[in-house]
């Protein structure tokens, strides 16, 4: 971790452990080196740093490209290795930056649902995360968060001191589907992207808020 990231990392750890009384399960399942995708459900603005704070390695998060227009924010975001993407996170430029980060053996936090839930329930995964898995060849660690919707969901104006829990699942291996996609037709490739996305979301759904 660089010094700027470490300062933010320590600050968020303090915030989550005190104000939100966080519980963290199975953080040891995240590899400390090499490329990896941390795929989490998304309910709140609290989620991106929450996924990265328990891990003793620097993680890259997606950030809306307009945030980089502010010189101070840009300076911080660059040192946090944030990845600029458009509002939908689906542009070719954004995809290229995500793949470059993974090919540089970084840990990247992604939200397969694409956007924050409006009702606290898990949503369907978009196929984009499946495309990223195939193009990067990165392993995927499913992550599930509980409590962040109640603490700071769309309906909450100021964060409430609700308890938050984060759990890391067993890494998922999609090597067989990645290999098939290399020679698959365009239609089959789309099916593979969707299958991988659905399997990631299913793994997130199965996680329970307790140690295994």
Question: Topology, please?
Answer:
Blueprint: H1 3-18, E1 23-25, E2 36-40, H2 47-52, E3 59-60, E4 62-64, H3 71-79, E5 83-85, H4 92-103, E6 107-110, H5 128-136, E7 140-146, H6 148-152, E8 165-168, H7 175-181, H8 186-206
Parallel strand pairs: 1-8, 2-6, 2-7, 3-6, 4-5
Antiparallel strand pairs: 7-8
Give an overview in words:
- This protein is an alpha/beta fold and 212 residues long.
- It has one domain (3-206): Glycerol-3-phosphate (1)-acyltransferase (3-Layer(aba) Sandwich).
- 40% of the residues lie in helices and 15% in strands.
- It has eight helices and eight strands.
- A six-stranded mixed β-sheet has the order 1-8-7-2-6-3.
- Helix 5 (128-136) crosses helix 8 and helix 7 packs antiparallel against helix 8 (186-206).
- The protein is globular.
- The two termini are 29 Å apart.
- The model has no long low-confidence stretch (mean pLDDT 94).
Shape assignment: globular
Tell me the strand order in the biggest sheet: 1-8-7-2-6-3
What are the segments in which pLDDT stays under 50 over at least 5 consecutive residues?
none
CATH architecture: 3-Layer(aba) Sandwich
Alpha carbon gap, first and last residue: 29 Å
Number of distinct beta strands: 8
Number of distinct helices: 8
Major pleated sheet: 6 strands, mixed
CATH superfamily: Glycerol-3-phosphate (1)-acyltransferase
* Average predicted local confidence, pLDDT: 94
> Briefly, what CATH class?
Alpha Beta
Radius of gyration: 17 Å
The amount of helix comes to: 40-55%
Tell me the strand percentage band. Answer: 5-15%
Content-based structural category = alpha/beta
């Amino acid at each position: 971790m660089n010094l700027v990231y470490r300062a933010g990392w320590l600050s968020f750890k303090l915030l989550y452990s005190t104000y939100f009384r966080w519980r963290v399960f199975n953080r040891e399942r995240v590899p400390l080196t090499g490329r990896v995708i941390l795929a989490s459900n998304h309910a709140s603005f609290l989620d991106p740093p929450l996924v990265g704070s328990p891990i003793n390695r620097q993680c890259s998060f997606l950030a809306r490209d307009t945030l980089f227009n502010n010189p101070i924010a840009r300076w911080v975001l660059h040192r946090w290795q944030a990845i600029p993407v458009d509002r939908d996170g689906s542009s070719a430029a954004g995809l290229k930056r995500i793949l470059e980060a993974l090919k540089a053996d970084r840990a990247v936090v992604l939200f397969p649902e694409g956007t924050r839930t409006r009702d606290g329930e898990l949503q369907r995964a978009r196929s984009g995360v499946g495309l990223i898995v195939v193009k990067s060849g990165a392993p995927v660690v499913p992550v599930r968060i509980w409590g962040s919707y109640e603490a700071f969901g769309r309906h909450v104006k100021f964060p409430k001191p609700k308890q938050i829990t984060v759990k890391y699942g067993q890494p998922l291996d999609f090597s067989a589907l990645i290999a098939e996609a290399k020679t698959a037709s365009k239609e089959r490739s789309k099916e593979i992207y969707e299958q991988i996305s659905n399997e990631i979301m299913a793994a997130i759904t199965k996680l329970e808020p307790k140690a295994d």
